[in-house]
Amino acid sequence: MYRTHTNGQLRADDINKEVTLAGWVQKTRDKGFMIWVDLRDRYGITQLIFDEDRSPKPIMEAASALGREFVVQVTGTVIERESKNPNIPTGEIEILVKELTVLNASLTPPFTIENETDGGEDLRMKYRYLDIRREAVRENLVFRHKVTMAVRNYLSGKSFVEIETPYLIKSTPEGARDFVVPSRMNQGQFYALPQSPQTFKQLLMIGGMDKYFQIVKCFRDEDLRADRQPEFTQIDCEMAFVEQEDVLTTFEGLTRHLLKEINGVEVGKFPRMTFDEALRRYGNDKPDIRFGMEFGELNEVAQHRDFNIFNSAELVVGIAVPGGNSYSRKEIDKLVDWVRRPQIGAKGMVYVRCNEDGSFKSSVDKFYNQEDLAKWAGVTGAEPGDLICVLSGEIDKTRAQLSALRMELAERMGLRKADEFAPLWVVDFPLLEWDEETERYHAMHHPFTSPKPGQMELLETDPGKVKANAYDLVLNGNEIGGGSIRIHDKEIQSKMFDYLGFTPEEARAQFGFLMDAFEYGAPPHGGIAFGLDRLVAILGGQETIRDFIAFPKNNAGRDVMIDAPAPIDSEQLKELHIKLNF
Ligand code: ASP
Hints:
Layout: E1 18-30, E2 34-41, E3 44-51, H1 57-64, E4 71-80, E5 93-104, H2 121-126, H3 128-131, H4 135-157, E6 161-162, E7 180-182, E8 190-192, H5 198-206, E9 211-219, E10 231-240, H6 244-263, E11 272-274, H7 275-282, E12 296-297, H8 299-302, H9 308-311, E13 315-321, H10 329-340, E14 350-354, E15 360-362, H11 370-380, E16 387-393, H12 395-412, E17 423-427, E18 432-435, E19 440-443, H13 458-461, E20 470-475, E21 478-485, H14 490-499, H15 504-518, E22 525-531, H16 532-539, H17 570-575
The chain binds aspartic acid.
Aspartic acid is lined by residues 174, 196, 198, 482-484, 527-529.
């Protein structure tokens, strides 16, 4: 037996017990006649003591030769500590060691394995197994486990069945490129890794499984943005014989359960907002509604003077920054610089100071009088002491810019509190989205999403206006889940492929299996998928998903620990009938 107890277990009640412990040497303090060692494992830290008078000499010698991260086993007696440490649960006791076995030595670790580490991100990723020994990382992984267990228990309790779907498949479009895997046995042919199990979960509904879920890896070959992973985990779900309302209710239930179970937070009924409203009020389809600063559209009250910048703009829109009138001129100039950075891309920013005495001072006083500005304050909801920030230009871009400013200011003012949770359903997404590059419509969600009832005709006349039975669950300004009611009719599905620019042959080749299945009694169905990595991070009060993934990839999509991706040898290429051509 390697141990009788873990390193987080022993208390004052255990004094005088003979115990055996095992773990890693976190640190040693050697005074010559006395040596203390902090012994660590997943459960905590227990202090060992070796002392000239009470420990055998060879053991004293062995103890003084211990280095950081050596793996040891000790046997000894639990004794009361002279100077207690109230900061750790085992702080009242220590182990007077009688036997010491070094199970394995260790090189000096490349960074300190403590909560405050001196290791930079790259180094910690290269030695991720050492990083995982740190309490912070370890506890994040345990936390993730708790969340997935809560998800499994809840859904299982609601008659959902977890079913695995294959990884070696054909393309399922979710708007990204596929990762592909060459087939050795089928020369010149490739599998695609699933961007999601979308088509399989629909086939499970046709198979009569009724309620499915799966905690599943998905793979998307996208240009990497900060904090995106090429492989990530979804809680993927599907239900048969449901309307949108049923799906929303079920997964509002799951989310509420998680907030209660994991965070001890009770939230009421989730508010709902249409996609159009979200854009109008927050400039964004995943608004953070933990704080105000809602958009006020100013076209009507700002396009009647000689200010050409506003007059020629599609949209003039502002937000009232609470207490913003206290910003110095320099601070405001910095804000203007901030919105003009290429990442944000605004041309400039007009501002209005709302003085305590009810008067206004703006950067466009030449064009607008006090009465005009009072109207702006009315529309944006500005109070005396606030600062109104106004942007103008094309609708979509201007909204995105002001939304970025709103989030930045909220962050600076500490309004994005990690322990506050504001879920929100965004509904009525457009079915299609115009793509400038390819000059055609794309499915906004995916091609299996059904239009709202009665909107099929609109597809002919005004495709951009068609709304879908599609919804997103937003939590604290992050999209944590999205789904839709699906098409379950072959004719409608082929029409959809047609609108999306697939020739009948292409649609047949890629999705013939699904359309065939629709002809054998496909029930109405719909579902949703949650991004587990992000959900866990938010519930854990953080926003970096990498911190909750055991072995994440870096921003360039590389695993720096195993050094992947990597070339393969020419034999293997030959077997796969692949010739490199660069
Ligand atoms: N397959 C979709 C996605 O990955 C989710 C869904 O529609 O259920 O976003």
